[in-house]
Specification:
By secondary structure, the protein is of the alpha+beta class. The protein folds into 2 domains: 36 residues, no CATH class; 115 residues. The strands form 2 sheets. Strands 1, 2, 3 and 4 form a 4-stranded antiparallel sheet that branches. It is globular and about 40 Å long. 21% of the residues are buried.
Length: 174
C-alpha cells in the first residue's frame, strides 16, 4: 500500500514543513488542489512526527526577544530543505546567554537518530551590533549546524563553507 503524502496549507499559500493552526484545531490538507481533502486534528491527540508551526517552534527556544526577532528573520529566509533539516531534528536547539565571569549553562537536547545534538548558541551582547551583523552571525552559525561543523566537500574549511552558505541564504559577511 503506497504511503500518502501531505502538504500543509498556510494562509500565504506556501508549502511549508509544519501545520496550520485553525482555531483550536490543526488543519492538514492532502496534496492536491486547494479543494483537496482536509482533516482536522485536535491538539494533543496527534503529535508523533508532527512539526509545530514555525512561530511555535521558535518560541520553544525561549530566546531573548531581540534575538528571537533576528532568528525569525533568518530562518524564514532559509531554503525549505534546510529549514526542514532543523525543524525535523528533535536534537536541534537555539539558546542565548549573557557573558559574565560565571560559567554559562548551555542546555543541549538529547542526541537523535540523525546524530548528535546541535545547538546554536548566541551571545546577548549581539544587541550592541548592527542588524546586518547579527543576522549574518545567526546565518553563519546555522550554516555550521546544517553542515554539522564540516565543509560542503572533502577538504573545505568549515569557516569558509559557513560564510559561503550564509551568503547563499542572503546574509553575506558585513
Amino acid at each position: 500500500m503506497p504511503t500518502q503524502q501531505w502538504r500543509v496549507a498556510f494562509p500565504e499559500n506556501k508549502n511549508f514543513f509544519g501545520l496550520m493552526k485553525v482555531g483550536c484545531c490543526i488543519r492538514l490538507m492532502k496534496d492536491g488542489p486547494p479543494r483537496g481533502e482536509v482533516h482536522d486534528l485536535t491538539p494533543g491527540l496527534y503529535n508523533w512526527g508532527v512539526i509545530p508551526p514555525l512561530e511555535e517552534w521558535l518560541a520553544s527556544f525561549a530566546l531573548t526577544p531581540f534575538l528571537h526577532t533576528h532568528v525569525a528573520v533568518v530562518v524564514t529566509a532559509l531554503p525549505p530543505e534546510v529549514l526542514h533539516d532543523f525543524r525535523s531534528d528533535p536534537a536541534f536547539s537555539f539558546c542565548d546567554y549573557e557573558p559574565s565571569h560565571l560559567p554559562a549553562h548551555i542546555p543541549l537536547r538529547s542526541p537523535s537518530a540523525k546524530g548528535p545534538s546541535r545547538c546554536v548558541v548566541l551571545k546577548r551582547t549581539l544587541r550592541k551590533r548592527p542588524d546586518e551583523f547579527i543576522r549574518w552571525v545567526i546565518a553563519h552559525e546555522l550554516a555550521h549546524a546544517h553542515l554539522r561543523n564540516a565543509g560542503r566537500h572533502e577538504g573545505e574549511d568549515p569557516e569558509h563553507a559557513a560564510d559561503s552558505l550564509a551568503a547563499d541564504w542572503g546574509f553575506p559577511r558585513p
